[in-house]
Write a structure and sequence with these properties.
This protein is mainly alpha-helical. 63% of the residues lie in helices and 5% in strands.
Length: 577
């Protein structure tokens, strides 16, 4: 159970010194300030206008920016308190925007909350089942492809607010339809909105280059809000620039009363979406934890991290939030600001809560074009364009996986993209394994000078009796090798009396390999050939025993090394002579 003890408990046992506490306080305040505009921006980008309007009529306090803040406070606190990383910062992230928007558009907020709760349960089960170490095996082209695709969709979703476009209805969820609407209504852009957006973008970019320690997003938000308010550009005051106040009315000054969001009728339908949320949560949180390990020299507990993430998502759904996970950029900012323990993440959540309690009315002044600029920067960072371009130098199969996952993410659905990407990568991996695995005859592999043979177990140092053939399988015994094994006997006009199958380089065998081996044994028996196995490793041997194949081949015909197999072959040849 040690692997499930949160790092917060570990740090409490170790004790805190003054410098650690001060560093955590400083880092927590800094990251809280950084997270403030991001939390509201992610909330706004994740909820379709139609869903926001429906909630406004039923639950006027439950606005999209409020959902983002609820998530950052509740999930952010629990991810730090219960997670397996000392410095992980959690909350809403850009990776979820696409899937969350799609679920909310189809099933409303109640469906989204149900999917979030289900995803939390799935992530907990993944942690309990020990999946933490397995998530890292998701192919890099898959994660790069869907991350770049998400970045494109996030950037596209911000065009309306960044330009101040006006048109009936909300922004379509489909990528092509979305751009059709943008192109049709491009003349409706608002000059003041564009100016505020471009100015905000410039502030963020310039501060990143010239003052990287200053949180550019919060500076842009403060400056843009002040300009819009002083100049009277706010739409709620007769201007043309939309703000949080003019569209949503503001954010509440406290956390909501928790509830249990479960729509039983939607559970079965939402399972694929919940699974996608769970996978994204696991992938991004563990990736963030690995990045943190590299910067701090510490090691995270992967399974504990998953359990903490799962609990945080369940709590987020209960507190009217959206999905959450570990945020790489905020985690890095936490480390660079002096964060050393989970206390920093808890203070980050407390900072956001303090803002809600003390300064929530000021949030209504924030221009939506400024939050759009913040998300455009997030999308650019997510795209990892250098890594994306570098992958084009990889093998063609990896490029196919990359482009397929990217294209499906942008043009269809993230759930489909991740599923197809993983399956396609698995198929291509199996194809590669089949290509490097082979069955070859080594009966006549006699060296001109035996003394130069470096392998003491080589067949070149042994005398193969007449009417005996020795074949060796190199690599895992999967489906590709199975087909080649079936064809080995067809190449002989006069089949041998004994067939030795050397398996010293076979570390694994699957069901297809077992079936092929059994069929090969049957074929040998029909032709009067004795099949002998040599050098069988533990996993293949266990699989054969479990399938009963060892009894069919016979224990007298299975040997640890080639010497025993050749001696057995001589005995059999002697009996038939």
């Amino acid at each position: 159970m040690q692997k499930y003890i949160p790092k917060s408990v570990v740090c409490l046992r170790e004790g805190y010194d003054r410098s650690t506490v001060l560093g955590d306080i400083s880092a927590g305040l800094t990251v809280g300030i950084i997270a403030l505009p991001l939390a509201m921006a992610f909330g706004i980008a994740s909820i379709p206008d139609s869903v926001a309007a429906d909630l406004a009529s039923r639950l006027p306090w439950l606005t999209p920016p409020a959902m983002g803040l609820f998530t950052a406070v509740v999930a952010g606190f629990l991810i730090s308190a219960l997670g397996g990383s000392r410095v992980q910062i959690g909350g809403p992230t850009g990776a979820f925007i696409v899937i969350v928007y799609d679920i909310a558009a189809r099933h409303g907020y109640e469906g989204l909350a149900t999917a979030t709760l289900m995803a939390g349960v799935i992530v907990i089960l993944m942690g309990v089942a020990g999946f933490g170490a397995m998530i890292k095996f998701i192919p890099y082209p898959v994660t790069t492809g869907f991350t770049a695709g998400i970045a494109v969709i996030i950037a596209s979703s911000q065009v309306k607010d960044f330009l101040g476009l006006s048109f009936e209805g909300g922004v379509p969820a489909e990528f092509i339809e979305k751009w059709k609407v943008f192109i049709e209504h491009w003349r409706t852009f608002d000059g003041r909105t564009v100016g505020v957006g471009l100015g905000s973008l410039a502030v963020i970019i310039l501060l990143r280059h010239f003052a990287p320690r200053v949180p550019g997003a919060i500076v842009a938000v403060v400056l843009a809000s002040a300009v819009v308010y002083v100049a009277g550009f706010d739409k709620s005051s007769g201007g043309t620039v939309e703000t949080i106040g003019s569209r949503f009315g503001g954010v509440p000054r406290s956390l909501p009363t928790p509830h249990l969001p479960i729509s039983l009728g939607l559970v079965k339908e939402l399972l694929p979406d919940a699974t996608t949320i769970a996978l994204l949560c696991a992938i991004e949180s563990l990736l963030s934890a690995v990045v943190a390990d590299g910067m701090t020299g510490r090691r995270h507990k992967a399974d504990c991290e998953l359990v903490g993430q799962g609990v945080a998502n369940i709590a987020s759904a209960c507190f009217w939030g959206i999905p959450a996970t570990g945020a790489i950029a905020r985690t890095v900012a936490n480390i660079k600001s002096g964060g050393r323990s989970p206390l920093a993440g808890m203070i980050h959540a407390g900072t956001l809560l303090a803002f809600m309690l003390a300064a929530a009315p000021l949030a209504k002044l924030i221009p939506l074009s400024t939050l759009a600029a913040v998300l455009l920067v997030v999308a650019y960072n997510m795209s990892e364009k250098d890594h994306f371009i570098t992958l084009f130098r990889a093998p063609v199969s990896d490029v196919i996986v990359l482009l397929t996952t990217f294209g499906l993410t942008v043009f269809t659905d993230l759930t489909i993209a991740v599923g197809v990407g993983v399956v396609l990568a698995a198929l291509l991996f199996m194809k590669r394994m089949a290509a490097v695995s082979n069955v070859s005859s080594i009966s006549r592999e006699l060296a001109d000078d035996d003394e130069d043979e470096p392998d003491p177990m080589s067949i070149a140092l042994r005398q193969v009796p007449p009417e005996v053939e020795v074949f060796e399988i190199n690599g895992p015994f999967f489906f590709g090798v199975a087909d080649r094994l079936k064809d080995t006997l067809n190449q002989y006009e006069r089949p041998p009396k004994v067939f030795i199958l050397r398996m010293r380089r076979v570390n694994a065998i699957d069901a297809t390999g077992l079936h092929a081996l059994e069929e090969f044994w049957i074929k040998c028996r029909r032709q009067g050939i004795t099949l002998i196995l040599s050098g069988v490793h533990a996993q293949p041997l266990f699989a054969m025993v479990k399938a009963g194949l060892d009894q069919k081949i016979g224990e007298p015909n299975m040997f640890d090394n080639i010497d025993g197999a050749l001696e057995r072959a001589r005995q059999l040849i002697g009996k038939t002579s």
